[in-house]
Design goal:
With 161 residues, the chain is an alpha/beta fold. It has one domain (11-160): 3-Layer(aba) Sandwich (Rossmann fold), CATH 3.40.50.620. Helices cover 39% and strands 18% of the residues. It has helices at 23-33, 55-66, 81-88, 100-116, 136-144, 155-160, and strands at residues 11-16, 38-44, 72-77, 92-96, 121-125. A 5-stranded parallel beta sheet has the order 3-2-1-4-5. The chain starts with 10 loop residues before the first strand and ends with a helix.
């Protein structure tokens, strides 16, 4: 890891429900891993969203999908993201933007996080064009109707399912 002048290294958190993790999510993790010394992928419990997969399954899916990216660590959490970032001494949150519709929500969340902790910065990354339309919501809908979705999620995750 590259130490900064103060002896620390740069970490970022990429959080989400990841229900399930998609190729678009992995694309964002890879991009972030090229920028930061460590990327912590934080899987939110998010029971209020009524996820299709259990928290334990989603953590395992993310671990499998990112196991070949050497500077990635996967954790589960059930707190405010800002509190988790403070606890882990991380001041950069990664968020993915696919379309303009994502931007308004993500901008509000970024401002809300910064209002709680002024040291928090939010960095927005776009997935590659081939993954720009992929979302967990789309994948879940295809799964519900027994459609073909293996091309939208990492093969390791498909094999776990």
């Amino acid at each position: 890891m590259n130490n900064n002048e103060d002896g620390t290294y740069k970490k970022a958190i990429y959080s989400g429900t990841f229900d399930p993790i998609t190729n678009g999510h992995v694309d964002i993790v890879r991009r972030a891993s090229n920028i930061f010394d460590e990327v912590i992928v934080a899987v939110a419990q998010s029971e209020r969203k009524g996820p299709m997969f259990s928290h334990e399954q989603r953590v395992k899916f993310v671990e499998e999908a990112t196991k070949n990216i050497k500077n990635v660590r996967v954790i589960g959490f059930d707190t405010l993201l800002v509190d988790l970032a403070t606890q882990l001494k991380v001041n950069t949150i990664i968020r993915g933007l696919r379309a303009v519709s994502d931007f308004e929500y993500e901008l509000q969340m970024g401002y809300a996080n910064a209002s709680i902790n002024k040291k928090i910065e939010t960095l927005y990354l776009m997935p590659s064009l081939e993954n720009a339309f992929v979302s967990s919501t789309i994948v879940r809908e295809i799964i519900r109707f027994d459609g073909k979705y293996d091309h939208l999620i990492p093969k390791e995750v498909y094999e776990c399912m």
